[in-house]
Design a protein that fits this description.
alpha+beta; 5-stranded mixed sheet; 2 helices
Amino acid sequence: MDTTTINNVGQIGIPVKDINRALDFYKDKLGLSLLFNTDSMAFFECDGMRLMLTLPEKEEFAHTSSVIYFQVSNIKDTYERLVSKEVIFIDEPHLVTKMGQTETWMVFFKDTEDNTHALMSEIQV
């Protein structure tokens, strides 16, 4: 086995400005499973991927995060459920591409810390 090969991503860090506000958003609005939290960090389980919300330790880390694409089964139903929880969406669910018998749909939203993320769904047609 090649020990220098990256197997997968184990954790993604998301910088936040207010840990309690962000914790409520990811737990209560997005419905992610909270593993544990401290005064400056919160860790969530997301189907084998761990998300870490963190107050930046240094100014160089105090910027918005990369876009995280959350896979969902039914993008339209999830979108409607999150709209009802007052999640701020930038657009509406839309078709991005069709590859063979698979359509990829996406919709982008903002978290409470001004990070942009997306829901994505791959649908067999």
